[in-house]
C-alpha cells in the first residue's frame, strides 16, 4: 500500500536539497505555546503503525514531554538527517530529535544522551564476514553510508587508506539496507538499531559490528539561543530515566527484535507467498467478525502451527490455531477445519482480551491477551496480582513480562490462585509473535485504510508527502545521489 498523508498546513512543498531557500522561522515556543519538532521518519523515530496510529520512540517521547509542559506539538517530517540539522539551525523549528550528539553541532545545544547507537556494516548474508571486511579494507568495493557516520568512518579511512566511502545524501538507514538486500549496493554502514529492526524482513542481509566500534549517542538538539528548552528537556529525561518509562518505551519498540533467526525469517517469508494466500480470505473474515487485525491473527496462526492445519502438539492441541479439544467445544468449532479453527481462534483471542481490564492501554492489552491465549487467562491474572504485590505496573507488558517467569517459583505460585505455570513460555511466545506480525505488516495490506486520528494538541506536518506507513516502505524506490569521500 502506498498511502500518503496530506500536509496539514499550507506550506510550500520542500524538494530534495532546496530546503534552505524555503526557510520559515518559527515563533518562540513560549509565546506560541506550540513546540515545532523536526524528525526523520522511520521505524525507530515516527511512523504510522499497523493500526493506523502515529507511533515511534521519538513520537512518544516528544508528545509526553509536550503534555507535561502544557505545549502543543507540530512535528515536521523530513526525508534526511542532514535536513533535520540544517533546518533547526535555520530556526525553522525549536527542537530536533534523534540527533547524533556532537556531530555537526556548531550553533546547537544538546540534551542528555538517551540512546546509544553503533555504526554497523550490512552485507549479503551469503558472504563470509572475514572476506567482506578484507574486500572493503583493500578498497575493492565501495562502502555506502549516511552523512552522520562520515566522522566515524574517517578513522577507518586513516587506518585503511584504500577504503572507498560514498556518502548517500538523500536516503535513510532502511533505504541503504534495502539496497544491500537487493544487490544495488555491495555494503553499507547504518544505525545498529535500524539494522536490528530491519533484519527480520531483510533476512538475506547480515550485520557486522566489528567494522566500526565507536558508539555514538542520540539526544535532542536545540539552537544555542534557547538554553531554557534544553534545560527543560534535560529535566524531562532525568525524570523518564528515573521512573523507568524510557526503558519501557525502548522495550516496546526494540524488545522483540532478534527473536526470529535468519532461517526462520526466510521460511516465514516464503510461506507468506506460498501458503498464506490459501487462508487470507478467512483471516479477513475473522477480522470482520472480531475487529482484530487479520495480519495479527495470521501471525498468531503461524506462531501456533506455521499455517499447517495438520499440526498437532504432544499435549493434544491441534489445527491451524492449535486449539485444545475443550476450547474448540466451548467455541463450537471443528478444530481440524481450517476455516472454523481460524474463526474460533479469533473469537478466543477476543475472549482473552475481554478478560484483561479495559484500563490497560494498547498495545499492552493485546499482548497480555495473547499471553493468555498461550498460558491461560488465570495465569495472566496471577501475574498481574503478583506485579501489584511487587509494586510493579501490571498494565505494562514490558513490566509484566518480567513477572510472568516468577510463576514457576514456589514462593510465588503457592500464594496465587492458579498455581504453578511455566511463565517464561508466554513471554517468548508473544515476543516472537510480535516479530512475525511486524514482518507481515511489511508485506500485506490492511483490510482498510485508516488515517491517524485528529488531535487538537499534536499535528504531524508532512510537506514532502513522505510515506509514513510502516508497511509501505519496502515498495518504494527513491532517487539516490552519491558523493565520494
From TrEMBL:
GO molecular function: lyase activity
Record's subcellular location: Cell outer membrane
Pfam families assigned: SBP_bac_3, SLT
Keywords: Cell outer membrane, Lyase, Membrane, Signal
Start and end residues of each Solute-binding protein family 3/N-terminal domain: 34-257
PROSITE patterns documented for this protein: PROKAR_LIPOPROTEIN
Keyword Signal listed: yes
Transmembrane segments: none
UniProt superkingdom: Bacteria
Signal peptide: 1-23
Membrane-protein topology: Peripheral membrane protein
SMART domains recorded: PBPb
Enzyme Commission number(s) from the entry: 4.2.2.-
NCBIfam families: PRK10859.1
Protein name (record): Membrane-bound lytic murein transglycosylase MltF
Organism: Deefgea tanakiae
